[in-house]
Amino acid sequence: MPIDATPPEEGEILEFDGDKWVPTALPGDTTIRIRLAANFSISSGSVEVPITFTADDILYDPQGMFAIANPTRITIPQNGLYEIIGNVNWQGTSSGSFRQLTVAVDGTAHTKGAVLVFGSGVPPINSVYALANLDAGDIITFTCAHNASTALNLLAASGCNFSVSLVA
Questions:
Q1: Other CB atoms within 10 A of residue 144 CB
Q2: Exposed, middle or buried: residue 119 (CB in 10 Å: 0-12, 13-18, 19+)?
């Protein structure tokens, strides 16, 4: 058995492909983990804005659920029950009274997480959690809306995280 001269990364799983050891995902690991690398602006007016991801945002995606050609989409690779999680931290402002994070499946809202805002400048946090039976090819999007008088940022440094995982 030849041994590759390149050592594996910490935590990397290898499999033998008949010729050499190569990196692989965990068997059946259908998960994507995303964390915004930069602030993302949501326009004012309570219109739901899809969150656009970049290659720098993708932390883990062994099944290729994200494609830069469709940066607002996560595409489901196989049928099953999926856990969908989103957390965003909003820029603080005294304007407006609500912030909202929504998970949509094929363009239809599935789960909404809304928070009412009281006080001046406190940066609210939105979270959304869903379990959904999905089919291969279904599209997941995360959208945000608010009713502040100006555009607001989702604050990357405070942790805006998203994940979609096959659980059964």
A1: 24
A2: exposed
Q: In this structure, is the dihedral angle defined by the CA atoms of residues 126, 152, 65 and 73, taken in order, positive or negative?
A: positive
Q: Which domains does the chain have, with CATH numbers?
A: 28-166 (2.60.120.40)
What CA–CA distances, in Å, run from 55 to 69, 74, 101?
11, 13, 22
Degrees to nearest 5, angle at CA 64 with 3 and 144: 140
Do residues 94 and 61 touch, judged by C-beta distance below 8 A? no
How do residues 12-42 score in pLDDT, each as one tens digit?
666 677 777 766 555 568 899 999 999 999 9
CA–CA separation, 57 vs 63, rounded Å?
16
* Interacting residues of 13 by C-beta distance below 8 A, sequence separation 6+: 23, 24, 25, 26
CB 128 within 8 A of CB 162: no
Q: What is the pLDDT of residues 72-121, one digit of tens each?
A: 999 999 999 999 999 999 988 878 778 889 999 999 888 887 777 666 66
129 vs 43: CA distance, rounded Å:
24
Query: What pTM was estimated for this model as a whole?
Result: 0.79
